[in-house]
Structure formats: C-alpha cells, structure tokens
C-alpha cells in the first residue's frame, strides 16, 4: 500500500499517506456538514438552511481545492464570505425566470472561472463558488427563503473556517520570502568569495547556488506559497525570485581577467554586491531597508563603468582606476570581465529593489530602476484590471477555460429551464466537475464518471427501496458515507468519486423530501445530460487544451524578442536612445507575450499528452519551455540595461559587429520560433537551428568600449537560452531550468492536478 503515516496524531492509526491527507480533510468536511445540517433540519425544522449549510461545506471543502495550510485557507474563506452571500442572493433573484437565470449563469460562470487569473487561491475556490451560485438557480424558486439560504451559507462558512483553523493543524511550508532570503545569503557568500579571490567559484559554492536557484522555481514551491497574484507585493516577490536566479547564475559564470589596474574597482563592486545581497536577506526577513547598501553599489558600479569607458591611450597604470586616469587601453579580456561584473551589479540592484518593494508595497525606501518596476505606484484595482486585460483574448488559456465553462453551464441551465429537467442542479454539477481542458481527458473522465454514477445509482436505489421513509437510518448513514466518500473518492479517481457522491446526495435528499428509488434514476439521467453537454463544448471550444497554445505563445514570444534584439543592437551601435519607453518599442508586447506563455505553460503541467501523443510541430515533451520564458525575461532586462543613458555611438567596426551579431541572434530566434510553431508552408531548415560559435564568428573590433562587450555578453546569454530550447536539455548551471525535471513533471499523470477553472468531483 505504500508508505504509511500516523493519522491525526492517533498512536497506532496507520493509513497510506494519500488516504491520510484526504482523510483529515474528510473529517473536517463531515464534522462541519453534520454540525450545520442536523441542527437546522431536526432541531429548528428549517430544511432550507440545513441544505445550504451542508452544500456550502461541500462546495468549499469538497469541490474547492484552495492551496495552503488550514489557517491560510481559513483566512482566505473569511474574505470569500461576502462573495458567497452575493452569489446566493443573485442566484435566488435571477432564478425566477429562465432567461434571467440563463443570462446570469453566463456572466457569473465566466467571471468565476476567469478569476483564476488572480492566482492559485482564486482558481482553487472557483469550482466551489460555482456550486454556491448553481444551488439557488433551481427549484424551488422562492426568493422569500433568501434569509434562510443566507443563514445556512453563513453558518457553513463560519463552521468550516473554525474547523480549518483549529482541527489537525498542518506545519507551515517554507515561505517564498524565506526561500528568497536564503538564496540572497548564498549570493552574498558567492560574491564575497569572488571578491576575496579572483577566479571562478569552487564546486561547493556552485552546488549551493544551484540548490538556492532551484528552490525559487515554481515547481519547487508549494502552490500556496507561489507569488502569483496581481498585487504590487506579489509581482515584486516574483521579480525578486527571478532577479535572484539571474544574480546566482551570473556569479557562477563570472569570467576572470580583472587586470592589475582595475582589480580594486572590480573587487569594490563585488563587495558591494555581497553587502546588498545580505541587506536584501535582512529586508525579506526583518523588513529593514537595503537603501544604504544599494547606494554603495550604485557608486561602485559607476566608478567601474567610468573606468571601463575611459579614453583609450598608451601607457600603464598601477593603481586602482589607473586605466582611466593614465589613459591605459584596457585589454578585451578585462573589458569582458567588467561587462560581466556590471551585469552582476545590475542583477543585485534589481534584487534589492524588488525585495524592498515586496516588503513595503507602494512605498519603497530604495531608488527603483526606471521602467523595470512599472507596477510600483499603481493601486490594486488597476493592477487587477491590467491582469484581466492581459488575458482578455482568445490566446489566453484562462480566457479559454472561462469561455468553455461558462457556455457549458449556460447550456445546461437553458436545457433544465426549458425542458424542466428534474433535479437539473445535478446536471450542472456534472458539467462543472467533469469538463476538462482537452478532448481526450474529457472523454476519459466522462466514461469513468458514467460508470461510477451507474454503480452509485444502483446502490442508491437499493438503499432507498430497503430503507423506505425511515429518515433516522439516512441520518445515521450520511456522516459515515460522507467520511468514506471524501476520503476514498479523491484518491481512487473520478469513477469512485462520482459513485460515492451519487449515494451521498441520495442520502441527503431522502431527508429533505419523500424518498423514492426513482431519485437514483434521475441522478443518472442528470449526470448523462450534464456530461454530454460538457463533452460537446469540450469538442467545440479549444479541444486540445494548452499544448498547442503553449507552442503558439512561445513562438510569438520569440518573434517579439527578435524584434527587440535587432532594435537594441542598432540603438547601441548608433548611440541613440529610442523615444518610446521603456527602452525600445515592443517591450509592452513582449511582456504580454511572456504572460500568455507563462499561463499556458502552467496549464500544460496539469494536462495529459495531446491526442495521439504528438501535436503539430515540435513535441511538447521534448522542448524546454521554461527556457523560452527565461529568454523573454533576459531580452527585456538586457535591452533596458544596455539602453540606459547616456549612449555614445560605437566606432564603425564595433557598430557593424554589434548590428551583425544582433541580426544573427534575432535570425536564430525566428528559426526556433518557426520550429516550435510551423505554418502550413514553413520551409524546412536543413542546418542546425543554433550555431554555438555564432558570437565568435565575427571578428572582435579593436578598441571597442565596455558597452560593446556588454551587448555581446547579452547576446551570448540569449544564444544559450535558444540552445536549451532547441535541444530540450542543457548543461546544468544555476540560472538554467532543470530540463529533465521539467519534462518529468509535465509527463506526470493528471490525477490530482487541475487546470485553473476546472474542478475535481467531490
């Protein structure tokens, strides 16, 4: 049976780990449902309040999958209580007429499903909130009972909040802020050692940097701890993790070649980087300001930049900064080192600014780099609007899921209203729980669900025939069966879940009305109707899920990045800063392309392989998709850094070299883009997609300034990203994605994982 653990802290009570986890949740749901249902039903004779108390607990505890510990879920559900009231009230008022109920289902269904753009918690709560709106949308159409409905809903939420907070407390996982703080301390040690001893980092330091970088990846972070929300702090914390991974990677790849005349300036920058990294960790843990250390690094960075761009002359210097003072022409190896160190400083400054913004919100204590933190001064409603607007298009998987779910639920509500489908609530519940994001997964789910529902209907009919109208038996059986259903169903799969839940609803409704064996027949009919409608919309609305969408989004991202690479290289060569902020035209388009690719990538990890095992063009399992996302971020960051004023034109040879390298890298981006998403007449590429010697194929111009070498370093990093994309695997360095692990995570079965806006049946 696999590994066993103690259950609920009871000595000798041993269950497989999967059953222990669902068992704790099942105990909470059962206790709270019983505490809300029985007093209202048998103590106060208020069946409406009893029904809503029970189904509120089923919605939030069984259908929803809100990530986090019990206390985190409890805090989130407290904020959801006004939403629950609004859904019950609106559903009650609109249910009196079919047209208003159908229109309300379309609007509310889309809104709730689309709320997944707000992060893992809204996405996990959406199915349960759907149920709370569906419940009052069916008979009895009695607006006069709204008071009892709200009373039952409030009781269910309050009891479940208490149970989540108090029963079976769970250890809190490591927060993302703490992960970032630990990574910052690793960066401090690496920078300090590089400052103390010129040369590359030792193997233990590289391994520590790799572990710290991997700990910040989303696959390594519990879902509840991922900073995925649209607010300033969440965005800034995401930015902190990305900047830290970049900082660790650049420290690990820092070349030697400081030069005798500039070694002190390089060492000063690295020491300032170490100091800012330590201050960043303190900021994340204790809320202190990294501003003094930031100013220190800005000053050291400016001195090194001045040394690198000093006037070329002949002679030799001996002291710190002598390259500039004595007019020494610095050798290319030293300039390459300076460019790399200045990139390290840039990553450290971004890390400190992002961490301060994550802690203080819209009132940071540090200077923010222009353009990079565009969200820093924007209020929360506008950030929510910006997030929603970014996904308001057919290329967003959040939009696709919301449209699919809203249309399916609306169709079921229309059929139930026009044909007076008995217990149409169950048909909508079937649509909500069985509709998936791919046609293959939907069909497989429906087959299992129908088989489980048939078995459950037969068991329900037998129980109803044998027990008859003796409600005391149903009252005794209900909590026992509920405990079994919510423990076994999530582990054994959708077939078991539907079968057990079919019996569960029969036991509930047998206590609310005169029971009859035909209740099982109606349940079977409703599940058949609801699943059929869900399957139809699964066929009509984006039946391939996010696999093809990820390919298109990644290809579009690379096309946008290629445009920026060409424009940035030309601007550096000409010494002209483009007028359009931030940096060059196209940044906003690339940012949106990155957002869409990230959302599609997140959904792909919850989906099985496409029909037939392969899609059009490149096989998703063989592509390192996260390398595409990193390439997009590297393009944005590098472009903004290279175009910081003042700019001076390069020499003719250096300008020609920069333009040529930029055009070649952009051309390779377009080739990889075409390979990811080929069109009907895309020509086949006979040669390799990536030439590892591309950057070295251009002669190094004599006397080129530091900005030229910074541009070459940026283009080389983009070539490294393209190599990872093209080959699917790559050498494992701290700033690289873990390609084998990424592919293994994508290849996992979909059981237990859902795309935003979908639900697992209780």
Give a structural overview:
By secondary structure, the chain is an all-alpha fold. It contains 26 helices and 2 strands. A hairpin with a 7-residue loop joins strand 1 and strand 2.
Topology:
Elements: E1 4-6, E2 14-16, H1 17-43, H2 47-63, H3 70-94, H4 98-114, H5 120-134, H6 146-166, H7 176-196, H8 203-215, H9 232-252, H10 263-286, H11 291-308, H12 322-325, H13 332-360, H14 380-390, H15 397-418, H16 424-434, H17 439-467, H18 471-492, H19 494-509, H20 518-540, H21 546-574, H22 587-604, H23 625-642, H24 652-676, H25 706-727, H26 739-747
Overall pLDDT score: 79
The backbone outline, from C-alpha atoms, is elongated
Beta fraction of the residues? under 5%
Largest sheet: 2 strands, antiparallel
Number of helices, where a helix is a run of at least 4 consecutive DSSP H or I residues: 26
Helix and strand sequence = EEHHHHHHHHHHHHHHHHHHHHHHHHHH
- What class do helices, strands and sheet pairing give? mainly alpha
Percent of residues in helices comes to 55-70%
| Structural Rg | 30 Å
Biggest sheet strand order reads 1-2
C-alpha termini separation: 23 Å
Number of strands: 2
Task: Give a concise summary.
With about 750 residues, the chain is mainly α. It has 26 helices and two strands.
């Amino acid at each position: 049976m696999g590994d066993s653990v103690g259950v609920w802290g009871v000595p000798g009570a041993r269950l497989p780990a999967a059953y222990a986890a669902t068992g704790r949740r099942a105990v909470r749901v059962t206790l709270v449902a019983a505490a809300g249902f029985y007093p209202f039903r048998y103590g106060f004779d208020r069946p409406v309040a009893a029904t809503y108390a029970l189904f509120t607990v089923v919605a939030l505890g069984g259908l929803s999958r809100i990530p986090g510990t019990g206390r985190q879920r409890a805090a989130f559900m407290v904020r959801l209580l006004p939403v629950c009231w609004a859904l019950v009230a609106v559903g009650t008022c609109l249910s009196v007429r079919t047209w208003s109920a159908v229109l309300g289902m379309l609007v509310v269904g889309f809104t709730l499903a689309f709320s997944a753009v707000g992060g893992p918690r809204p996405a996990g709560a959406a199915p349960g909130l759907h149920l709370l709106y569906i419940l009052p949308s069916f008979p009895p159409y009695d607006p006069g009972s709204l008071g009892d409905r709200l009373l039952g809903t409030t009781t269910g939420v309050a009891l479940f909040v208490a149970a989540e907070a108090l029963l079976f407390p769970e250890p809190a996982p490591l927060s993302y802020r703490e992960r970032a703080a630990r990574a910052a301390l690793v960066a401090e040690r690496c920078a300090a050692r590089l400052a103390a001893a010129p040369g590359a980092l030792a193997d233990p330091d590289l391994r520590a940097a790799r572990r710290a970088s991997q700990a910040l990846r989303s696959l390594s972070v519990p879902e509840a701890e991922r900073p995925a929300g649209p607010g300033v702090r969440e965005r800034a914390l995401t930015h902190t993790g990305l900047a830290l991974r970049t900082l660790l990677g650049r420290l690990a790849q820092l070349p030697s070649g400081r030069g005798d005349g500039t070694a002190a300036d390089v060492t000063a920058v690295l020491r300032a980087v170490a100091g800012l990294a330590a201050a960043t960790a303190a900021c994340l843990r204790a809320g202190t300001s990294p501003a003094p250390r930031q100013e220190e690094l800005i000053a050291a960075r400016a001195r090194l930049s001045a040394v690198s761009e000093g006037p070329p002359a002949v002679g030799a210097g001996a002291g710190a900064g002598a390259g500039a003072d004595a007019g020494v022409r610095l050798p290319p190896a030293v300039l390459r080192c300076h460019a790399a160190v200045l990139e390290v400083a840039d990553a450290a400054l971004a890390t400190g600014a992002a961490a301060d913004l994550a802690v203080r919100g819209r009132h940071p204590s540090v200077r923010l780099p222009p353009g990079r933190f565009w969200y820093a001064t924007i209020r929360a409603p506008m950030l929510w609007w910006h997030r929603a607007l970014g996904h308001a298009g057919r290329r967003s998987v959040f939009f696709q899921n919301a449209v699919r779910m809203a249309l399916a639920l609306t169709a079921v509500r229309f059929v139930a209203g026009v044909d007076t489908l008995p217990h149409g609530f169950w048909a909508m519940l079937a649509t909500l729980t069985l509709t998936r994001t791919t046609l293959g997964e939907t069909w497989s789910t429906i087959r299992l669900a129908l088989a489980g529902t048939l078995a459950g209907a037969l068991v329900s009919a037998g129980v109803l025939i044998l027990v008859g109208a003796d409600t005391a038996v149903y009252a005794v059986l209900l909590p026992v069966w509920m405990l079994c259903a919510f423990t076994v169903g999530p582990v054994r799969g959708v077939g078991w879940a539907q079968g057990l839940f079919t019996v569960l609803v029969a036991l509930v409704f047998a206590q609310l009305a005169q029971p009859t064996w035909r209740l099982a027949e109606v349940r079977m009919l409703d599940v058949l109707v609801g699943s059929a409608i869900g399957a139809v919309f699964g066929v009509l609305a984006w039946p391939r899920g996010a696999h093809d969408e990820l390919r298109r989004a990644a290809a579009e991202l690379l096309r946008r990045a290629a445009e920026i690479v060409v424009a940035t290289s030309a601007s550096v060569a000409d010494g002209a800063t483009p007028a359009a902020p931030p940096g060059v035209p196209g940044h906003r388009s690339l940012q949106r392309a990155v957002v869409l690719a990230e959302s599609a990538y997140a959904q792909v990890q919850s989906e099985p392989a496409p029909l037939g095992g392969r899609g059009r063009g490149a096989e998703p399992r063989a592509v390192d998709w996260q390398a595409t996302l990193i390439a997009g971020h590297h393009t944005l960051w590098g472009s903004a850094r290279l175009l910081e004023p003042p700019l001076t034109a390069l020499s003719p040879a250096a300008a020609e070299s920069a333009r040529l390298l930029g055009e070649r890298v952009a051309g390779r981006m377009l080739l990889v883009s075409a390979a990811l998403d080929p069109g009907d007449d895309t020509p086949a590429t006979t040669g390799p997609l990536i030439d590892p010697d591309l950057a070295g194929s251009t002669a190094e111009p004599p006397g080129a300034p530091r900005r030229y070498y910074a541009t070459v370093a940026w283009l080389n990093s983009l070539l490294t990203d393209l190599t990872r994309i093209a080959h699917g695997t790559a050498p494992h360095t701290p700033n690289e994605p873990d390609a084998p692990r990424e592919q293994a995570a994508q290849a996992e079965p979909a059981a237990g994982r859902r795309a935003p806006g979908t639900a697992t049946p209780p």
